[in-house]
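look at this one:
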Amino acid sequence: MISHIKTQQLEGLLRSIINSARAAVKDPEDYEARSNLMWSSTIAGIDALEEFARDCGIVLNLKELGATEEMLPKIANSTVILGGYKKLTEEEILDILKTACSGNRF
């Protein structure tokens, strides 16, 4: 079921896509309109992917996996040893995990 807020987001995206498409067709050199069109389409795609993942029963955040706020420091500490292309501090990892646990996208 789509919430009232989600409905308003979708309406805003559709308005943006319609307005940007009209502007881009009217003036093919209007790169701002083309950029807005691409961003709106990207956001709509992310929302559709999230809805698809939920429909499939895919877990979308750490809380749904059963992680609690108290577990995050230990999880952050265990990931520091794995490394990657960018070295993160335990604090940075903990901030990322807190966001993932809250269910917020950004």
Notes: The chain has two domains: 4-55, 62-102. The two ends are 22 Å apart (CA to CA). Residues 85 and 98 are 21 Å apart (CA to CA).
